[in-house]
Design brief:
about 375 residues, six-stranded mixed sheet, single chain, alpha/beta
């Protein structure tokens, strides 16, 4: 299937391929929909096995950001970037500055941020080339690492899902299987450990696992074994597509709630979870804390305002469960419907966001003064 045919499937607006031979940059930026505003989404760095794999990931992630921002009530569209490379070996100032120039060339239609494999320090190198980046150091008037805020939102969504499954949002004594021990998962695990939950964890990197074992008294299992763990809650916090034909039948948890994007390999797996009596908190709703956090930079960052918004994800997830029950649909379908209805309502008066730096920057431009 051609790239344009794949774009037509979910009506993507733009896909940009970026390369810089001197720095080794190979990246793809996907802009899905800018009806609500400029596309905001993180830049992921990952050692993809092929360009096809990278393209598939960035397309799925960009559409997920459209749904996430719409569901969160933000005036933002959906976009994403992937940088092909090993984040533990291939980073350099030259590479990120070259990527920053690619972002700058889009004139504000895409605003980048942190994601899997990238950090605040990486964003600061991108910031040397463009204002269209969020999540840089507070020293520049930005919000810094969004992971703690993302984790807080996931924690709120997990509590709402627990209430749906168990009749109470309390997580004390619950066994929670955490897949992925990265930045967001670390802050999520801290909330869970402080509440008294029991953690079973796994990650591709042993040093990440050791940190969780030491700090949170977690039990470690092999990556493939995490699906078979007897737990109350399964929390995916790594890459997408992990809820599929092979893994869903293996789950031994009553709830799925985590920070990973695009957890469902296909929308039909949402129904497969319902059939097994598993409560699924839609990923693009409960992991919206990060985008709520960095989006606030567009207006002049206010941490208290952000945390109040993120705390409402608890009620938002409960509302989605109520809609799903009333309509006889899955929580995933209920969340997607609510997001798309908002986009379609705005589309009647505005088609898409065009490059307009003065509008796109707002609070971002104030960082330079």
């Amino acid at each position: 299937m051609s790239i344009l045919s794949r774009m037509q499937d979910f009506d993507y607006e733009q896909v940009v391929f970026c390369q810089d031979a001197s720095s080794g940059l190979k990246a793809i930026i996907a802009i899905h929909d800018t009806t609500l505003g400029p596309a905001l989404g993180g830049a992921r760095m990952w050692p993809y096995a092929s360009e096809e794999e990278a393209l598939t990931d960035v397309l799925r992630l960009a559409r997920g950001m459209t749904l996430k921002s719409a569901a969160a009530g933000l005036d933002l569209g959906g976009g994403k970037a992937v940088i092909i490379g090993d984040p533990r070996k291939d980073k350099s100032e030259a590479l990120f500055r070259a990527f920053g120039r690619c972002v700058a060339s889009l004139g504000g239609r895409y605003i980048t941020a942190e994601d899997v494999g990238t950090t605040v320090q990486d964003m600061e190198m991108i910031y040397q080339e463009t204002d269209f980046v969020t999540g840089v150091s507070p020293a520049f008037g930005s919000s810094g690492n969004p992971a703690p805020v993302t984790a807080f939102g996931v924690y709120q969504g997990m509590r709402a899902a627990a209430e749906k499954a168990f009749g109470t949002p309390e997580l004390r004594g619950r066994a929670i299987a955490v897949q992925g021990c990265g930045n967001v998962a670390y802050h999520l695990a801290r909330h869970l450990h402080e509440e008294g939950a029991r953690l079973i964890v796994t990650d591709l990197y042993e040093d990440n696992v050791r940190r969780f074992v030491q700090e949170f008294e977690a039990e470690a299992v092999a990556p493939e074994a995490i699906y078979d763990v007897q737990a109350d809650i399964f929390s995916p916090n790594a890459l997408g597509g992990i809820l599929n034909d092979e893994t869903v039948p293996r789950l031994r948890a009553r709830v799925v709630a985590g920070a990973a994007n695009n957890q469902l390999a296909d929308a039909r797996h949402a129904a497969a979870l319902v059939e097994r009596g598993i409560v699924y908190a839609p990923d693009f709703v409960i992991n919206a804390g990060g985008v709520i956090n960095v989006a606030d930079e567009l207006y002049g960052y206010n941490r208290e305002r952000v945390m109040k918004k993120v705390e409402t994800l608890y009620d938002k997830v409960k509302h989605i469960f109520a809609v799903a029950d009333r309509e006889g649909i899955t929580p995933h379908d209920a969340a997607e419907r609510l997001a798309l209805e908002r986009i379609e309502a705005v589309r009647r008066v505005r088609k898409r966001f065009l490059a307009d730096p003065k509008h796109a920057l707002r609070g971002l431009s104030a960082r330079r003064t």
